[in-house]
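Hi V.,

You were right to ask for the full record rather than a summary. Here it is.
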Amino acid sequence: MNGGLHINSNIFAKANQIIKTCDAAYFGVIDEDGFPSVCTVSPTKTENILEIYFSTNIGNNKEKRLRNNNRASVCFRSDGNNITLVGEAEILNDQKTKSLHWLDWFKDHYQGGETDPNYIIIKLRTKRASLWIDNESAEFLIDELLTVQSRCGLLCKWCKYKEPMNCPGCLALNGKASWCDDYCDVSKCCIDKGYFHCGECPDVPCENLRGLSYGDDEHNDKPEGARIAVCRAWAKN
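Predicted structure:
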């Protein structure tokens, strides 16, 4: 479903950075009459676009509507960048989750603190993403993003060098770099250790991967660590 739009590790990492800086987002649910209903929410301790968390009151319209239809969407906007995520929401009321996501300013809304019975967490598990970041657009299914495509976290399927270099991809080449007769140090390290991709390694990011991901070269990640974030997402999911 990429629609010909370029998806890369960089735009994934940029989206993750942006949502961490947003104090508010727009959350849409389906109301009792089948119409979309949008409200403002405050995300809490969200690490990436794969799962979004925020708090709400038990018994309010959002909670009631999600129990009837858990399909939902959230939109983040910052400095002209737009991140729209569509997925399925889950209502979490266990104390471990409530404590993990508790923020001090919640006391203004929940007098009983993190054990307040009216305090609950909503988790949106993203199924589809539509991004506009730094004048670059991308639309994709999360399942596409989470399909392992390389050793290092590069999204080979949408790499702009794939067709010009006639490169079948890192996994197909089994560690050999398409642009020379030698083997990629990162791929060779990963294969020698018996891992499918670097995210499975407890040493991630090792010196080899950091050298590939960090730096000022045009082929290094922008922002730094972008492909490392993809590797960790692969490992987690």
